Recover the amino acids of this structure.
């Protein structure tokens, strides 16, 4: 029997866009108190619903600003939806904006603990996996250096190594299949592939339709925050193709 590992129910996400120019924080606070700040409501996601079974690989398609990254962030728990509910079973590994959660004043070693805690790992678990993370990142010589002195590639390598040290049930990929330099990229791709081989459930956002077709069995197509097509990758690719050629 197939097992449902992700359920997205009627999810909507509203952002308040400030329609005025505010020069500084003081100005902002004064306007806020005087209720002179005007916000424009913007719905980045509207009534999005779908569910995935164990081993499903879902491609999320859509043009710029359609709501793809917002949906991934809601599923990863980075954003709380304005409306609706996301239910997940098992460990989620979000490979989103790798290393963006680092505190740059702290060293690589300290960030392994900080970032790990953010991903829900216990201190004992990180103690146990610490050497493996450092080894995979190939940053042993830099591990006691503040992250602000890392290159962006080094940051994403450390982020990738921390995030993938667990065996996830759900893997979230936002066009990050290329991490670091060519050598590391190969290694990270092999690691992702090994997760695929173990039957992980995947959510994948990419503008590269070919890549999505190669990787995914199901897809959804988003337009202005709404699902306008969902089903097998073949069906949804066709709907996307029609949009592209319009
Ligand atoms: N934190 C935020 N505050 C306000 N608006 C936001 C925020 N994050 C996203 N948006 C808006 O929500 C919409 C959807 O953005 P999102 O990044 O999810 O699109 P996307 O489909 O991933 O686009 P792209 O293909 O360009 O990456 C955009 O109009 C964007 O401006």
């Amino acid at each position: 029997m197939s097992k449902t590992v992700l359920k997205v129910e009627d999810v909507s996400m509203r952002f308040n866009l400030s329609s005025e120019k505010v020069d500084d924080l003081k100005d902002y606070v004064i306007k806020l108190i005087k209720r002179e700040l005007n916000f424009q409501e913007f719905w980045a996601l509207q009534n999005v619903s779908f569910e995935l079974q164990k081993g499903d690989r879902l491609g999320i398609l859509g043009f710029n600003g359609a709501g793809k990254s917002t949906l991934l962030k809601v599923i990863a728990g980075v954003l709380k939806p304005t409306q609706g509910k996301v239910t997940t079973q098992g460990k989620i590994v979000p490979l989103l904006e790798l290393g963006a959660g680092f505190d740059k004043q702290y060293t690589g070693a300290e960030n392994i603990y900080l970032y790990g805690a953010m991903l829900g790992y216990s201190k004992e678990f990180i103690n146990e996996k610490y050497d493996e993370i450092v080894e995979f990142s190939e940053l042993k010589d830099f591990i006691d250096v503040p992250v602000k002195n890392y290159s962006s590639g080094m940051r994403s390598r450390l982020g990738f190594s921390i995030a993938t040290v667990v065996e996830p049930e759900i893997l979230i990929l936002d066009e990050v299949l290329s991490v670091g330099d060519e050598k590391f990229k190969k290694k990270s791709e092999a690691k992702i592939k090994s997760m695929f081989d173990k039957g992980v459930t995947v959510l994948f956002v990419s503008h590269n339709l070919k890549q999505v077709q190669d990787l995914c069995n199901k897809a959804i197509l988003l337009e202005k925050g709404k699902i306008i097509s969902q089903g097998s990758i073949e069906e949804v690719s066709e709907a996307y193709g029609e949009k592209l050629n319009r």
Remarks:
- DSSP finds eight helices and nine strands in the chain.
- The two ends are 41 Å apart (CA to CA).
- The mean pLDDT is 90.
